[in-house]
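User: I've been trying to design a sequence by hand for this structure and keep getting stuck. Would you show me what you'd pick, starting by listing the structure so we're on the same page?

Assistant: Good idea, let's start from the same input. This is the structure you sent:
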């Protein structure tokens, strides 16, 4: 009953947004990986993105003016991973804020070393997802500046990772999935990838994936949607688990 009311409220708010076909097409044109979608999937993604825009609180940082193209692009990418999930937008419940920066930005950090000394430093980042808080994203006039990185899918994969209570590279799995199978796929793949990065190999997958199992999940999620053939070739068991989790198979489209 409560979910039905939330859905009705979202649909009502979304219906008030004036987005025409040309605006959708212009946003999708910059996201070529959406070409794999069927007509039905594209229609459902647009509707989900429309509700997402209406449901969240949007803020431009450092003077950035949030335009319709920026919001549409972010919404389409954020909603692609949840397109076939039973929860729909409820997969992103518990937080409302999206903050968009004009380019990369700095976050003050503190780190305690093994001797107990606290070190403070500025960390330059492209995005960050806060547990129970907003998603921070960089936006570039030319997104090619960031190379083969999908900031939006990456950060929203982190939000999905948080659905099991820990940012550990394992989201809350569906009833037809098991932790055993997930670990059996991801653990050896992560270990292998870390070894390759440590050995100085020029990996086709972003080496940032070696930073932590949570980053490995987020980066492989990017690759799953943008270059699924690459992920299937590199780590087929990981591809299979992501196929089951996202309930999508990009290579079959």
């Amino acid at each position: 009953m409560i979910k039905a009311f939330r859905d009705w409220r979202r649909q009502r708010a979304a219906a008030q947004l004036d987005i025409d076909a040309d605006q959708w097409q212009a946003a999708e044109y910059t996201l070529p990986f959406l070409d794999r979608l069927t007509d039905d999937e594209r229609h459902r993604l647009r509707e989900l993105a429309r509700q997402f825009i209406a449901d969240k609180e949007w803020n431009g940082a450092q003077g950035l003016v949030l335009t319709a193209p920026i919001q549409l692009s972010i919404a389409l990418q954020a909603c692609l991973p949840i397109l076939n999930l039973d929860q729909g937008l409820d997969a992103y419940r518990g937080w409302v804020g999206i903050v968009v920066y004009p380019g990369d930005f700095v976050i003050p950090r503190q780190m305690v070393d093994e001797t107990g000394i606290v070190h403070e430093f500025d960390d330059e980042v492209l995005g960050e997802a806060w547990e129970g808080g907003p998603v921070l994203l960089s936006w570039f006039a030319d997104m090619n500046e960031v190379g083969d990185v999908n900031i939006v899918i990456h950060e929203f994969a982190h939000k999905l990772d948080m659905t099991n209570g820990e940012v550990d590279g394992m989201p809350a799995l569906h009833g037809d999935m098991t932790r055993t199978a997930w670990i059996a796929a991801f653990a050896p793949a992560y270990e292998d990838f870390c070894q390759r990065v440590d050995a100085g190999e020029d990996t086709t997958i972003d080496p940032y994936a070696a930073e932590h199992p949570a980053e490995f999940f987020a980066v492989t999620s990017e690759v799953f949607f943008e270059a699924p053939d690459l992920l299937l070739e590199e780590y087929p068991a990981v591809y299979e688990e992501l196929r089951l989790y996202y309930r999508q198979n990009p290579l079959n489209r």
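That's my pick for every position. To get oriented when you compare it with your attempt: Strands lie at 57-60, 97-102, 105-112, 118-125, 127-129, 135-139. Residues 1-146 form a domain with the Cyclin A; domain 1 fold (CATH 1.10.472.150).
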